[in-house]
Amino acid sequence: MLNVLKDLTGIVCTIYRLFQIPMVAHRAALISILSFTGYPGMVLSSVYVIPHGDEIISKKNAEAARLNSLISDLSSGDTSDTMVILSPHGLRISDSVAVINTEWLHGDLVISGLRLRRKYRVHRDLANQIANLMDGFTRSATFITTGGPKSVFPLDFGSLIPLSFFSPEKVVAIGQPRIANREKLVEFGKLLGNALISFPGNVSVIFSADQAHTHASDGPYGYSPKAKLYEEAIRAALTETNFSYLMKMSEDTIDEAKPDSFWNMLILSGLLESTGKMMQYDFGYVEHYFGMMLAHSIPSVQS
Questions:
Q1: 107, 228 contact by CB (below 8 A)
Q2: pTM as predicted
Q3: Whole-number Å distance between alpha carbons of 166 and 79
Q4: Residue 208: strand pairing partners
């Protein structure tokens, strides 16, 4: 039944993509297939935007402590057995998306005397499906060997810090692509969303993201007034679940603000469109030279 379901959903995705049928109809067709077959599909529990600054672990100030508390509150209610995480500090390929497909992920990080050490089993069936979403753009990546006890990929801090708040049985790690084609990133987000609602299990998605990095003249990247402009644009996009301005944002603004979130936010916009979810902005602040924001999904009126 699973293979038949994958074939059916794959056919539907291809037809709707070729004829540019709106994503609302695309999503409805996938749900109809699941209903017709009596197959429960994967429940897309939650979508998160979570920062990865060390400060949210060390809780070095009141704002960081509040952020830590809010993330903990959200994660305590998340019962997903699988987490998909997209990190700007994972494996990056210049022209495509890297989907890690080892047996295990392992991370070990010490922050202000606090040790984060985690090992996660990779959901390889889901990783394989995501790696095959867009021919030539999504790619499977391994490390040392494809199977066995030594098939372990090193987990970056952009993944490890957000994941440390959760307790998933399995994880799929995706490296954030930084290509110039914004439409392609949105399309990947749409297909990713469709893959998650047509696959068995219970999953949540984390978009690991810090914002602009040029808020302070004594920071490592200097100061630019574009940092505040960028923060305001992302806050508005998350508050209104409207990312249209990001499609028009100038390359100059992105270059001067120096975010690591921009490309993930475009993928997020596509995923929200295909899954019918909306975002709720929770909290944000500037930690010296870089911005951090937290947001989570809520059901849309149409869901």
A1: no
A2: 0.86
A3: 9
A4: 50
d(CA 284, CA 64): 9
Nearest by Cα to 254 from 179, 172, 163: 179
Checking DSSP bridges between strand 201-208 and strand 82-87, what pairing results, if any?
Answer: parallel
- Read out DSSP for the chain? -HHHHHHHHHHHHHHHHHTT--HHHHHHHHHHHHHHHT---EEEEEEEEE---THHHHT-SHHHHHHHHHHHHHHHT---SEEEEEETTS--BTTBEEEE-SSEEEEEEEETTEEEEEEEEE-HHHHHHHHTSSTTTEEEE-BSBSSSTT-EEEPPHHHHHHHTT---SEEEEEEPP--S-HHHHHHHHHHHHHHHHTSSEEEEEEEE-B--S-B-TTSTT-B-THHHHHHHHHHHHHHHT--HHHHH--HHHHHHH--SSHHHHHHHHHHHHHHTEEEEEEEEEEETTEEEEEEEEEE-TT-
Rounded-to-integer distance, Cα 229 and Cα 162, Å:
25
Q: String of b and e for 53-65 (b: at least 16 CB within 10 Å)?
A: bbbbbebeeebbe
**Residue 241 · residue 265 · CB < 8 Å:** no
Structure tokens at 236: 């508005």
Residue 42's pLDDT band (cuts 50, 70, 90): low
Per-residue confidence (pLDDT) for residue 299, from 0 to 100: 76
The Cβ of residue 161 has, within 10 Å, a number of other Cβ atoms equal to 26
Q: Which residue has the tokens 């080892």?
A: 102
**Segment 164-206, tens digit of pLDDT:** 999 999 999 999 999 999 999 999 999 999 999 988 889 999 9
pLDDT of residue 118: 97
CB-based contacts of 176, cutoff 8 Å, min separation 6: 86, 87, 88, 90, 92, 260, 263, 264, 267
pLDDT at 6 over 80: no
